[in-house]
Amino acid sequence: MNALTPVPAAAARTAPTPEDLTITIRDERFNRDSTPRKWWAGEPFGTAWHNALSATFPRGEAFFIEAVKAHREGADPKLEAEIRAFVKQEINHTREHIAFNRLAEDHGYDIKAIDTRVAELLALTKNRPAIANLAVTMALEHYTAMMAAEFLANPAHFKDADPEVRAMWRWHSAEEIEHKGVAFDTWNHATRDWTAWRRWKVRSLVMLTVTTRFFKNRWKDSLNLLEQDGITGWKAKCGLFSYLAWKPGIVRRIFPAWLAYFKPNFHPWDHDDRELIGLYEGEFADALMPAE
């Protein structure tokens, strides 16, 4: 069921999440038919990077959902509604990336090693305090929001990509921007008895750790997928580095937004970029329905 999820106003909130924010459930489906093997402009490096990202999403987004839900008790009505909408959006993202990953496998890519690595890493979180999992979720949600904003603001990223794949990533990006403050606001709610110094210290240290692991693992995963295309050694490394840092340069372009995370008073909605959603909202009009 497609739904437009209204978010009721709260009496008082310190977070700068817009009071008029509406999180929309867009029940879209993609990649059920054939898509080219090298779907990113017919070349392997962007294809490998995004395939590697997508392979992590089904388990990763399930982890995000559980981490946020674990801290919703006592949340104000607005945040409680945002959490429900966040969960619905992430469930749809998981479904679509499962379909995309299946398509990649149908084209001969072996992504099971990536899924296994993610499963092993998530297994290590089972005995960790729940608040630690929320801190990791908050950091990774900032990554998805940064990349989503760049994907929508800069059409060069998917300009020559397969139209079906491009549509999926743009849809996903719109929703990641829309719910970019949910994990952060849940963190502020869950740590409301902490000092500002402790909050900043923990989220900053977690972001540094997450950043190291994120790029180490995605680099390794991408090189593995490139090897499956017969591209190895310095050719693979230089091509991938050029894609990430030069043209179109997703890592280079999101660096300022990454750095902003370390400001003591940072919040994801310090920059209200909902206009990026509006640029593409017309494409999703048929998938929107009022909530029952």
TrEMBL record:
Keywords: Hydrolase. InterPro entries: UCP07580. One of its GO terms (molecular function) is hydrolase activity. The keyword Hydrolase applies. Pfam families: Metal_hydrol. This is Metal-dependent hydrolase. It comes from Qipengyuania oceanensis. The lineage of its organism: Bacteria, Pseudomonadati, Pseudomonadota, Alphaproteobacteria, Sphingomonadales.
